[in-house]
Amino acid sequence: MMTKATICLWFDKDAKEAAEFYAATFPDSVVGAVHSAPADFPGGKQGDELTVEFTVLGIACIGLNGGPIFPHSEAFSFQVATDSQEETDRYWNAIVGNGGAESACGWCKDKWGLNWQITPRVLTEAMAQGGAVASRAFEAMMPMTKIDVAKIEAAVRGD
Q: Domain residues for 21?
């Protein structure tokens, strides 16, 4: 699975559980090899699960069980483009419903503290148009937690 570039995600101690959740939730996602620590380390002991290779939506990742010293922050997030309200709801509800938390403007956080942007393409496309369309879509999005596709479409039309 090793590619030239891999995203390394630091977890406290449950990288494999997170990887399994991502693989069950998102297409083109799979859990690969799990490697044990060859010796004691600051976050654990010899034989503990140290790294987990996995992909999320085709993106190569390694989960590192390094202990609680470095928590996730909003400075890093996965942005997931969705094609419908149904797809938006499915991903949002999976993350939030599995111990996660809602945030603003299409952002949510999973139970491991990793941040996700569940972003309908209609919003991205409206923002790319610029001008009045982008302004209306942006104003419609600002009070939302999960993005409401119908409200964004209405804003794009000027309704």
A: 7-65
